[in-house]
Each structure stands twice: as structure tokens, then as C-alpha cells.
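Morning, I've got a small favour to ask if you have a moment. You're getting the sequence in one-letter code plus the fold written as C-alpha cells. Thanks so much in advance, here it is:

===
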Amino acid sequence: MPALGKLVQIEARLFLRDPMSFTIGLLLPSVILLGLGAIPALREPSPDMGGQRFIDYFAPSALVMAVAVVGLTNLPAVLATYRERGVLRRMRTTPVHPAKLLLAQMIVNLAAALASAVLVVVSGKLVFDVPMPQRPIGFAIAFVLGISSVFAIGMLVAAVAPTSRAASGLTTVLFMSVMFFGGVYLPRFMLPDAIARVGDYVPPGVQSLLDAWTGTAPAAAPLAVMAATAIAAGTLAARIFKWE
């Protein structure tokens, strides 16, 4: 455990020293939410969103960004870089097994994603009085399952990508898909209904987050898909992960 704790400290310092990881991973979702909230028209209730303000409706999509930026871009890229540079291979010859490095990376990136999500919720509430999630238990369940599925997919990319460039190519496609279906690029009420329904099941399941946020119990089917995705992708990643 002391070795793991030391690795977590080192990986956390490396994360915070990287301006791109720190700025984009931690701050960008909140900055975008606050930037949109600065537009007066987006702080007015809209019939297109059931009387909600756009800023309230968009908050769960900002959470999607908070999770996806870290889980689908930073985590796979770092692990693929470690493999490409032989870090994992060299660690196999030391008493510190490289699996501990993977665990340390997971801990640091999960903490970063959670911190980014908390910043979104708190900044939205303090600056624009964005309501807190109305069903906190349902929201917590949806968020945990959603973030687990995204990180499992990120680990799967890290398992199959031989180089950092390959990881970047795969994660770019996945990231853009998650952003699209999560209502970041275009609000979900403006998407065709069929595409919006597909988005309900695309990790991290923005509709479940939105439902719990606004006071409706999240549907069981999307939550089951998030759980199944996390288990399947995580198991597959563990089985095929290569150290070199």
C-alpha cells in the first residue's frame, strides 16, 4: 500500500503539472457552463425545455463533458504513452508491479473527473442558481454507473492501442460521439427523436442524469446498459491488456 500511495502522489503531481490536463480536464466543463450562463437569453425559461432555463437543462451535458474529457482522452493517452516508452515493461522487473501504476492512474483520473463534476454543480449553483439534483440517490447511482462505463471504455482503448497516436485516434472518435449524443454539441431537444433515444444508452447516459437532476427517477434500462458496459469493457480490458 505505501508503494501505491507513492505512485498516486507522483501521478497526481504529473497530472496537475500538465496545463492541458489540468485546464481541460478540470476546468473546461465549468467554464463552458458559466460562459453559456453569461448569455441572458439562456437564463430565461423556455417552452422547448418544459419551462426550464437552458442553463439548467445543459448542466448534465456539462457533466458528460467532465467525465468524458478525463476518462476518454487523458487516461488512455497516458497509459498508451507509458507502454510506448517502455515504462510498463521496465516496471515489470522491479518489486512494484505495473498493475499498481494502472491502479494509481485510475485513482487520479477518477478523482479528477469527480472534482470536475463537483465544480460544474457548485459553480452552476453559486453563479446562476442552477438547481441541485432533485433525486440525489438516483443521481448518484446514474453518475457512478455512467462514469464506470466511460472509464471502462477508456481502459479498453488503453489495452488495445499500441501507441499514444493510436490511442488519440480512437479516443477522438469516441469522445466526439459521446459529446454529440450527450447534448454538448447540440442540445438534445434539437436532435431527431431517434438519435436522442440512442443517446439515452450511450455512456455516461445523459438522460438518466437529466431525469434525476430534474426530479424524475432514472429509467432502469439505460442504467442496466451502463452497468453492462462497465463490466464487459472492464473485463475485456483486463484480459487483453499488454504491458509492452
Q: What stands out?
A: Residues 54-84 form the longest helix (31 residues). Residues 18 and 24 are 10 Å apart (CA to CA). The chain has a mean pLDDT of 87. Residues 2-240 form one domain.
